[in-house]
Design goal:
The chain is mostly helical and about 450 residues long. It contains 16 helices and ten strands. Helices cover about 60% and strands about 10% of the residues.
Length: about 450
């Protein structure tokens, strides 16, 4: 169900709000101030529990690392009405240590700030820093800022995980670079809170937080999925400041070059317009200005290239140092493993192994040789001849078997051999009768 907002527009109920939020009768009662607890203990406790759960869900759902009662009342307004009991609920949650006030958070364990190099922030009054970041501090209960420690820890963990994924150009960053890399995780009023937690847990060093131009954040562990994590010197060195200074100068030069490039394009368009309008003298003056600006832009491009190369070398010098230290550690470990070995011992072991292999080969050869007197020493040619005879005998036997398999019927006569008749002889008397004469 949608409800009208303060501006009169319909607004859907947030997913973290309970179903009871739609009950007008109940919500009208819950939006009122708390009465004395001794008047109705059960009703008081039920109402307090309802709002504790709602505020807890709202802080998580709206990602509110730091907040005030006024901001919560704005978030939790219903049909144009704001709950009046929020300050009392926040006081109760503060007493139960669910939330902590901003003053308490920044005032705790200041000694550790000094030990970890946070002198510039510690020496300045807290109200000065918070005034820059959050606006002027107020003792008004409706404006007292609270912090959700659970969200602070979660944000800090996300920042550290990303920092250790290998995206850091160097372990020390200026505030602008930090915002570019982690602005989607933490920003605005939550930023100094998360940074403070990182330094308290000895995961980062932060200096000059109240000065955005000089604020520096240095992570104390670096690494990636393909390389082991290693600890970083727990102080911001001159080398770190040098890297940050070069990076800031490079960023400034790049911004100036971009502005000059835009100006050159504008002057070029102006020259063309003047030429088309026939204003040649004016066009020549503008063209000269454009040429001078292009020359300055070319010089700035050279400076940008040089600064970029310098920054690359500075950022990689730390990696080169770590590689050198890794080589040293590896060499030390290798030498330690070689303490109980020598070249003579290795050669002796290799000779012994070769001798054992030769003996084994001789044993294998002996096992494969036929035994004497076992009948295996038969002439191979004789065996071939005997096999040939057997094959021939086998062919003859097959022929006889085929003949014997033929069947003849008992009453079938045996065909006689055909006889060719001789020519008949004629006597003389017969020859006369035929009319032939001798």
């Amino acid at each position: 169900m949608d409800e009208p907002s303060a501006t009169g527009k319909s607004r859907a109920r947030a997913s973290y709000l309970p179903a009871a939020w739609e009950d007008d009768t109940r919500m009208n009662a819950l939006f009122t101030e708390f009465r004395a607890r001794n008047a109705n203990t059960a009703g008081y406790d039920n109402k307090m529990k309802f709002w504790v759960d709602v505020i807890d869900a709202c802080v998580v759902g709206e990602d509110m690392v730091t907040f005030s009662a006024a901001e919560l009342r704005e978030k939790l307004q219903r049909k144009g009405k704001k709950p009046h009991c929020i300050p009392a609920v926040l006081e109760e949650m503060h007493r139960s240590k669910k939330f902590i006030t901003m003053d308490q958070f920044f005032a705790a364990s200041q000694e550790s700030w000094v030990a970890w190099g946070f002198d510039s922030l510690v020496k300045k009054p807290f109200s000065f820093t918070t005034g820059l970041l959050f606006g002027s501090s107020s003792s008004d209960g409706d404006k007292t800022r609270y912090i959700s420690l659970d969200l602070v820890k979660a944000k800090a963990a996300d920042v550290v995980d990303r920092a250790q994924s290998g995206i850091l150009p160097s372990s020390a960053l200026d505030l602008a670079t930090f915002n570019e890399l982690f602005g989607d995780i933490v920003s605005g009023p939550a930023l100094p809170v998360v940074l403070k937690h990182l330094q308290r847990t000895q995961q980062a060093v932060v200096t000059d937080l109240d000065n955005q131009e000089h604020a520096t954040i240095k992570f104390l562990q670096r690494g990636s999925a393909s390389s082991p994590r290693h600890k970083v010197d727990a102080k911001i060195s001159e080398a770190d400041r040098g890297v940050i200074a070069v990076r800031r100068s490079l960023k400034k030069m790049e911004d100036e070059a971009a502005a000059m490039h835009t100006k050159v394009e504008e002057l070029d368009a102006e020259v063309r317009s003047l030429v088309r309008a026939g204003k040649k003298p004016v066009a020549i003056r503008v063209l000269k200005k454009k040429k001078l600006l292009e020359k300055a832009l070319a010089q700035k491009d050279v400076v940008i290239t040089n600064l970029g190369n310098m920054l690359f070398k500075l950022e990689n010098s730390e990696s080169d140092t770590k590689v050198f230290e890794t080589y040293k550690a590896g060499l030390s470990a290798l030498k330690k493993t070689q303490q109980d070995t020598s070249l003579e011992k290795i050669e002796s072991i290799v000779d012994d192994i070769q001798e054992a292999v030769d003996i084994q080969n001789e044993i294998d050869e002996a096992l494969r040789s036929p035994l004497r007197g076992s009948g295996d020493d038969v002439d191979e040619d004789e065996l071939d001849r005997e096999l040939k005879d057997l094959l021939e005998d086998d062919a003859t036997g097959n022929l006889i078997a085929e003949l014997e398999s033929l069947k003849v019927a008992d009453n079938e006569p045996i065909p006689a051999k055909p006889v060719t008749p001789a020519p008949a002889k004629r006597d003389s008397s017969q020859r006369g009768k035929t009319g032939f004469t001798q």
